[in-house]
TrEMBL record, chain A:
Oligomeric and partner information: Composed of 13 different subunits. Subunits NuoA, H, J, K, L, M, N constitute the membrane sector of the complex.
Membrane topology qualifier: Multi-pass membrane protein
Catalytic activity: a quinone + NADH + 5 H(+)(in) = a quinol + NAD(+) + 4 H(+)(out)
Protein name, per record: NADH-quinone oxidoreductase subunit J
Lineage: Bacteria, Pseudomonadati, Pseudomonadota, Gammaproteobacteria, Oceanospirillales
Cell membrane listed as a keyword: yes
Location, primary (coarse class): membrane
Transmembrane segments: 6-23, 35-56, 62-85, 97-116, 143-162
Naturally occurring in which organism (per UniProt): Halomonas piscis
Automatic annotation (TrEMBL), chain B:
Family, per entry: Belongs to the complex I subunit 4L family.
Molecular-function GO terms, alphabetical: NADH dehydrogenase (quinone) (non-electrogenic) activity
One Pfam family it belongs to: Oxidored_q2
Assigned EC number: 7.1.1.-
Name of the coding gene: nuoK
Source organism of the structure: Halomonas piscis
Assembly notes: NDH-1 is composed of 14 different subunits. Subunits NuoA, H, J, K, L, M, N constitute the membrane sector of the complex.
Higher taxonomy: Bacteria, Pseudomonadati, Pseudomonadota, Gammaproteobacteria, Oceanospirillales
Entry keywords, A to Z: Cell membrane, Membrane, NAD, Oxidoreductase, Quinone, Translocase, Transmembrane, Transmembrane helix, Transport, Ubiquinone
Name of this chain's protein: NADH-quinone oxidoreductase subunit K
Subcellular location as annotated: Cell membrane; Membrane
Membrane topology: Multi-pass membrane protein
Function: NDH-1 shuttles electrons from NADH, via FMN and iron-sulfur (Fe-S) centers, to quinones in the respiratory chain. The immediate electron acceptor for the enzyme in this species is believed to be ubiquinone. Couples the redox reaction to proton translocation (for every two electrons transferred, four hydrogen ions are translocated across the cytoplasmic membrane), and thus conserves the redox energy in a proton gradient.
Catalytic reaction list: a quinone + NADH + 5 H(+)(in) = a quinol + NAD(+) + 4 H(+)(out)
Amino acid sequence: MKTSIVVDVAFWLLAVFAVYTGWRVFRTDSMVRASFFLLLSFIAVGVIMLLLSAVYLGVAMFFMMGVEMMVMALFMVMFMMNPAGLNPMMMVHQHRLSIGAGVASFVMLAAMALLAEFPRHPLPNDVQPVAALGNELMGESMLIFESAAVVLLATMIGVVVLSSQRGRFGSAEQGSMPPGLEPGGDPAGMPDEDEQAGGHHHCH
Amino acid sequence: MTLTTVLLLAAALIGIGVYGALSQQSFVMLMMGLELMLNGVMLAAIGFWAMSGAGAPEGQLLTILVMAVMAIEMAMGFALVVAVYRGKQADVTESIADLKG
């Protein structure tokens, strides 16, 4: 795979952009802004993947991260203090240790990238990345692909169990009762006692 | 663009992710740090696939698996945030000493 000067310039610009936006995620003072900075960082990496000929994965990255960061932004507004970023925000603990760990991991990985000798086997010119990936997923590595699907299914079930209000072992009518019209009042939208002839009624 | 520069970018993203995951008090910001780390891992895998692996399809497969891990991490993380918030009205890591409801 030959890279032209345009690709090189684009890579460097995107690399600087990805690192800058990734760093801004933890430095901005609005939650929603933080999630959009992370989205920008992911998009820059997705474009780099496109430059590296990983067409399918680069595009998948755009779609997946677009949706994921929207969910993230919603959660930010739902659960965090100072959601709109109206106050200056610095919510960190063990700050020095974290900076040290971050710098140490960067130095270690960068040293490996610089010092190690990696084999040079660039992409052949006739490679078709999407077709090759499809053949791999549906051929040799189908079992791995399917096990990932089963793990995702287990995740869905786990997520519902964890986030459900009743939990797995609530009582039968718990959570199925509409709230009262006034605090402590009768549930809304239920038929009156005398209209319900002979039926069982559990809303006390 | 060489394999070394791609790996350096991946290292920078992983380093920032480590900093974010360790330093942030909020659960959601902590997850953002994890995401950034996985982002770097995916980039490194694609770099190896394109420049060192002669386009062996397993490189892309590995990236798909990391993407699945990312989705799992997000989904379980958000579910845990919901569960912890419901149980303890807490959204910062200092507020919980254990994971018992």
